[in-house]
Amino acid sequence: MTLNQELAQMKKTFDPLTPLEAQAALSRLIREQQESAAPFGLQVGQKAKDFTLQDALGRAVNLYDELTRGPVVLTFYRGGWCPYCSRQLKSYQEVLPEIEELGAQLIAISPQSPDATLSQSEKDELRFHVLSDRNGLVAAMYHILYDVPSYIQDVFQQGLGLNLAEYNATSRWILPVPSTFMIDESGSVRSAYVNPNFMQRFEPEDILRELRKL
């Protein structure tokens, strides 16, 4: 079963447990982003934006330093509270040996706080860089950051009991559009997957296929 087939099965499980009003609000958000006049994400051929972020242990990780070791698979996810994100990262962990065999490495970024990042890394036993972009500055540079609208804030707080600003230890309700960028050693974006539908993600096999092209 592919990753997106698994995510589709998860959605079928969640739908009966999710109020219709919440489902409508989430569908509205996806539709509005899909119809946005301004496209999300860096485009293929553009230069990847350099950044330095901390991992769960407070160690600084710089993108361009990592690129001296080979290509980077850079993925932005919403947070450890999102079951779709958790399954995505576990799925990527499963192909990490093949990613490394191709000379590349994986970096995952979310706006969650370093403490939340650590608990997720420990829980999921992830062996790649999981970085905290708490104020969304890097996601903004990659043109995938958005302010969570009030009608979605209500869904999170009433349905999940989640105050995203508190969870991320910041003052803003922000999220990245789930995205995966393939970046070569020169810093050029060679492949970009940006999808406002958070229930769909870039397939692990597609990562490997794109890496083989580099």
Which descriptors apply to this entry?
single chain, 214 residues, alpha+beta, Glutaredoxin, two-stranded antiparallel ribbon, 10 helices, 9 strands, 18% strand, globular
Just name the CATH architecture. 3-Layer(aba) Sandwich
- Spatially, the strands of the biggest sheet line up as 2-1-5-4-3-8-9
Sequence stretches where pLDDT stays below 50 over 5 or more residues: none
CATH topology title:
Glutaredoxin
Mean pLDDT: 94
* SSE sequence, one letter per element: HHEEHEHHEHEHEHHEEEH
| Shape type | globular
- CATH C-level: Alpha Beta
Relative strand content: 15-25%
The largest β sheet comes out as: 7 strands, mixed
What structural category characterises the helix and strand content?
Answer: alpha+beta
- CATH homologous superfamily descriptor: Glutaredoxin
Rg result:
17 Å
Number of domains: 1
Distance between the ends: 27 Å
The amount of helix comes to 40-55%
- Summed up, the helix count is 10
Question: How would you summarize the topology of this molecule?
Answer:
Blueprint: H1 3-14, H2 20-34, E1 52-55, E2 60-62, H3 63-67, E3 72-76, H4 83-94, H5 96-101, E4 105-110, H6 114-124, E5 129-132, H7 137-141, E6 145-147, H8 150-160, H9 164-167, E7 174-176, E8 179-183, E9 189-194, H10 204-213
Helix pairs in contact: 2-8
